[in-house]
Design brief:
The protein has 236 residues and is mostly beta strands. The longest helix is centred in the C-terminal third of the chain and has 10 residues, at 224-233. It is globular. The relative contact order is 0.22. 10% of the residues lie in helices and 32% in strands. It has three helices and 14 strands. Strand 3 and strand 4 form a beta hairpin.
């Protein structure tokens, strides 16, 4: 995260560190056995690679630890069937945990209710959202050993279409920005949060906190049906 501040203990218990055979991504705990991630974190792995995947849950440190820290292994992953590796369209995937977290764990909600959906209509602008992760604090810089958070504003699709051209697919993506603030390398897969709802998945950008380019995120509301169907077909 560029321009972030340290999160407090227990502030984001549902933001997950993904250690994927040494590769760092973020994720969102959305159920006892499910973590929502970006497909392109997983695009170059096979199912057999899950033996080297570790999830660190409810921790501030990239290396785990803390009073309520939990670590989990992964049983399998499911990438959206229409994920485009070149342009990061449909950049959404689900991890199924090898064993469920405790029932009283904190989860991020999917944007299923009408209020959340209304907040995220493509025409709605200037919604404040929170980003969080352990990624680099500058483009090409060092990752953060502790969880950082920042506030960004969800922008109108027209702004991002002007910045990115046809790469930006407004129905499937949203973009967000704030001065000198952005997600960065290593934050990929982590959430954009509005009122306890995961509305976006960190996906791509040009640089980090470049004033000419907003950060682009998978628009979760588009994929709720796919997520719920995938959960039903892959019981934890």
């Amino acid at each position: 995260i560029v321009g972030g501040t340290p999160a407090a203990e227990g502030e984001f218990p549902y933001v997950v560190v993904l250690r994927l055979n040494g590769y760092l991504c973020g994720g969102s705990l959305i159920g006892r056995s499910y973590v929502l991630v970006a497909a392109h974190c997983l695009a170059f792995f096979n199912q057999t690679d899950v033996a080297g995947f570790y999830l660190l849950i409810n921790t501030l440190s990239m290396d785990g630890g803390g009073p309520n820290y939990v670590t989990k292994r992964v049983k399998k992953f499911i990438i959206h069937p229409r994920f485009n590796k070149q342009f990061y369209n449909n950049d959404v995937a689900l991890l199924v945990l090898s064993s469920p977290v405790a029932a009283n764990s904190s989860f991020l909600n999917l944007p299923t209710n009408q209020a959340a959906a209304t907040t995220l209509k493509p025409t709605t602008t200037n919604v404040s959202a929170t980003i969080a992760g352990w990624g680099t604090t500058s483009f090409g810089g060092s990752v953060s050993s502790t969880l950082l958070k920042a506030n960004v504003t969800i922008l109108d699709n027209s702004i991002c279409a002007a910045q990115y051209g046809t790469t930006f697919v407004g129905a499937n993506m949203l973009c967000a920005a704030a001065p000198d603030t952005d997600t960065c390398q290593g934050d990929i897969g982590g959430p954009v949060i509005v009122n306890g709802v995961v509305v976006g998945i960190t996906s791509f950008a040009v640089g980090c906190a470049d004033p000419k380019y907003a950060g682009v995120y998978t628009r979760v509301s588009t994929y709720v049906t796919w997520i719920q169907t995938t959960q039903a077909n892959n019981p934890g």
